[in-house]
Design a protein that fits this description.
This protein folds into 2 domains: 180 residues, no CATH class; 159 residues, no CATH class. It is 10% helix and 34% strand. The protein is built from 3 helices and 20 strands. The protein has a 5-stranded antiparallel sheet with strand order 3-8-7-6-5. The N terminus is likely disordered.
Amino acid sequence: MRRVVGRGCGRRSDGLDRVIPLRFGAADSELVKVRSNSRRNLLHLALVLLVMGGTAIAGSAPARGSQLIDRNAKQVRLAVDGSGRALLTYDAAGARRHVLALGGAINALAPSPGRSQVAFRLDYGGGWGAYHRTVWQRFHNACRPYHGPPLAWLVAACTAPDGSFWALQSFPQPLPDLGFTPWLASQRATWLELSHWRGPLPKLAVWQDWVYDMRYTQIFGRLTYLGQPVYGFNTTRDGAPTDGFGRLVYLDTYDSAYGRGWRRENSFVTHNPTGIFCYGFYPFDPTTGGYDHPPGTTAARGPGTGTRYRLTAEGPGVLPDITWHGTALRPSRGPSSRDAALQQKMTQQLRSLLGPDKLCRQGHSL
């Protein structure tokens, strides 16, 4: 799935232990942590895999906002004890799962090269990986009803004894770009994601304007946390973040040229060092640029302009995903004083965000 300046998530270990990826159908690749040169832990690993019937034991999942737990989870329950551990219970792939979130991760760090973003340690054995016993069977839930801010894609949430918030969101991340109807089962999956925070949420500010002599519409904005821009340092060739700080913004369009209802238009990373993003609604060739497309598709797609737009941004660290909804900017009606005034206002707004950014200058007289 191609992203204009990013989609996907870089996988990494936390650098403390040797990590062994096991593909048992939980998160992207559950990571089983084994102390280097530890024969005893290797024996524990073999025993747990036998007892748990192939369930991944413990892991450091990728450092990304609202951390990925699993796909297509049902019957989801969230519990938090007095020591700051969270227990996630759900059904997936025909089995009941008990995942323990450890490590005290909360909120997010500001972008900093050479540092690791905060992340949970995930024990997919319900306690076997961390304690060599099943904790989930006698886990005491001390979480109170949720009284935090409204969240999109919410499945479960609660307020911990220390006043912090925990939440689980289920987001349709893998939808194909350019408004294609999913043709693979994996594209219809929803991602179950965990977050933990105290204090303000990140902010997603969004505006719209016209570009290239007002022939096309554009959506632009900035992702910030505590007043500071959110961004990463490296991406793949197609723009997927490869460090724990990079964040994606997913753009959906409603009642567009692709058809009725919501369709995934594209996704993109926020820019270093400003935290801004910009996306123009142009025609795209689905056979170039790394886009996934149904076999045999050759016709151009778009522009994907709709009547409404929805943006979902991955929160930094272990903060929750946040969204923006808005009415789509109409096509320009040609030279008019009203359109000219709006364009001038939006150009000033964009100029105030740009800083050293060059990508978002394209199509403007800046």
